[in-house]
Amino acid sequence: MSGLLSPKPVSYLQQPTPSYNPYVRGLGPYSETPPLSNAPLAHPVPHQPVGQQFMNNNIRADAVREDGKIYSLVIELLDPAMREGALLELSKKREQYDDLALVLWHSFGIMPALLQEIVSVYPLLSPPNLTAHVSNRVCNALALLQCVASHSETRQLFLNAHIPLFLYPFLNTTSKTRPFEYLRLTSLGVIGALVKQNDNNTVIHFLLSTEIIPLCLRIMETGSELSKTVAIFIVQKILLDETGLTYICHTYERFYAVGTVLSNMVNQLVETQAVRLLKHVVRCYLRLSDNLRYVRHPFLTLTFNVRHLVHEKLCVLAFPSLYVTRPSVSS
């Protein structure tokens, strides 16, 4: 009987059977519930209201749809048959979509397509055969170029490609018809967007290497009031830069050319009463007077004479802070 197992001790059989607890299920050595810590429980994060979450989802969906529309319009610029409509729609949305300049610049074939729109108008400049329809179309392309020129991440790339030079034939036109005036004004807007930025020293250096000053001086004499305002704004920005002031005052011929145009504008302001133009004219004169070489030149001394500076009423409108009305003393 040596092969048989010995019976278990009686003491084992006499142990009490443990009561069944359905909440405690032993899993043996495989798991053991860790003791709860005494640290206070964190407050649960309140759930976002269903309405607010639904609204946020709608905003995201609208943004995705708007991005999709922009991308579709940009792709349509590559198709000559669909380009005109895409130019019109994108020119309307350029101020609503902040990254449009980046999309235009970094998309394949878009910038050549915009330049093709500009170059295609050159044969209509001389003799002047530009129609209003063609002018509106090319101005929509120029509006997109202005968007690229004003963006901080694409402005330097815009200059490196010498794209402003493609606009100079438009600035060199002399026809006073509305299509040509609109074309010059929109082209000036692109240059104005370049110089409007605070860190424009690189832009000024680039413009001084071109013929922008003679082109702006011509428009300041013969253009419409709005074109004159943008043109003199560009000249004023160039003068405010130390390099620009030194360039204009480097030779008497350059100084004389700028001074003559400013003097003619002062004479015209007596009739036109254009306060906005007067502000820019006076600021240009003040900046020219910072150059000690010509500070006593007749252009600068005569301009601030009462006879030359338009009458006092116009000056009050332009610079109200310089004219303080004395209060009346009651008797």
Automatic annotation (TrEMBL):
It holds the Pfam family Rcd1. Transmembrane segments: none annotated. It comes from the Eukaryota. Belongs to the CNOT9 family. This is Cell differentiation protein rcd1. It comes from Hohenbuehelia grisea. The lineage of its organism: Eukaryota, Fungi, Dikarya, Basidiomycota, Agaricomycotina.
